[in-house]
């Protein structure tokens, strides 16, 4: 899975970020007061659901899913992130190390919900990814995923071809020492099309807006992100 010739795109970056991310992401406004509230606003009633928490990071949402009564399998490609998740959640969830760019090690119809917070942007082939997500979901199951907003990325990165999926890298300095984080830029159609092609119906689309707590923590950034898009959250329902 982690052979250098097929090494996951952001593995090294997230290994470097993991400790700082685990420390700061629970309260950092872009996470706690922008992305997570938007993503959780479209989650269904979780009690009794079988949930795959893809790209679980340090387990912040894993803990929420468990607390709300879900039966959770959580996974991440970064072993250090998984270590933090296990410390946070303990025996409340099952944890696996896996690469979302590879076939998922689950049987068909294994889950009611796939949750993915800001992790699909590191996967190259979304047609294969959503085909796998559809395979492991039961009929009528849901996928809830947050991602970078394509308008924000196109404006900031100025790709030569808006429609072409391509790799970029940006320096993150909000979790400790600066780290270059590579990711895949893709258009709006490049994000929604693979989900529809895999048999999902687009059920919800939310452009994340900052909370009042964000304003209290960082008034200057609040003024910017309250006017400009940052994250996009989509919920798809699998045809039953």
UniProtKB/TrEMBL annotation:
Question: Where in the numbering of this chain does the Methyltransferase type domain appear?
Answer: 53-145
Answer yes or no on keyword Oxidoreductase.
Answer: no
Q: Name one GO molecular function term.
A: S-adenosylmethionine-dependent methyltransferase activity
UniProt-listed Pfam families: Methyltransf_11 (PF08241)
Can you tell me where the transmembrane regions are?
Answer: none
Tell me the superkingdom of the source: Archaea
Instruction: Name a biological process GO annotation.
Output: methylation
Q: Which UniProt key words apply to this protein?
A: Methyltransferase, Transferase
| SUPFAM superfamilies reported in the protein's UniProt record | S-adenosyl-L-methionine-dependent methyltransferases
PANTHER family in alphabetical order = METHYLTRANSFERASE, N6-ADENOSINE-METHYLTRANSFERASE TMT1A
Q: What is this protein called?
A: Methyltransferase domain-containing protein
């Amino acid at each position: 899975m982690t052979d250098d010739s097929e090494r996951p795109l952001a593995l090294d970056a997230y290994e470097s970020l993991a400790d700082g991310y685990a420390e700061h992401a629970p309260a950092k406004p872009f996470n706690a007061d922008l992305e997570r509230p938007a993503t959780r606003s479209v989650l269904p009633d979780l009690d009794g659901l079988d949930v795959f928490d893809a790209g679980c990071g340090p387990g912040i949402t894993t803990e929420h899913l468990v607390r709300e009564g879900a039966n959770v399998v959580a996974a991440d490609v970064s072993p250090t992130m998984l270590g933090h998740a296990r410390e946070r959640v303990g025996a409340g969830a099952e944890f696996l190390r896996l690469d979302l760019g590879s076939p998922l090690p689950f049987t068909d119809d294994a889950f009611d919900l796939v949750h993915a917070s800001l992790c699909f942007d590191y996967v190259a082939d979304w047609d294969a990814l959503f085909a796998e997500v559809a395979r492991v979901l039961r009929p009528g199951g849901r996928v809830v995923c947050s991602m970078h907003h394509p308008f924000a990325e196109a404006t900031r990165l100025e790709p030569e071809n808006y429609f072409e999926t391509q790799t970029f890298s940006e320096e993150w300095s909000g979790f400790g020492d600066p780290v270059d984080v590579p990711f895949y830029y893709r258009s709006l159609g490049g994000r929604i099309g693979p989900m529809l092609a895999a048999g999902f119906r687009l059920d919800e689309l939310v452009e994340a807006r900052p909370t009042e707590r964000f304003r209290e923590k960082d008034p200057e950034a609040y003024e910017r992100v309250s006017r400009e898009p940052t994250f996009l959250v989509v919920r798809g329902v699998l045809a039953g």
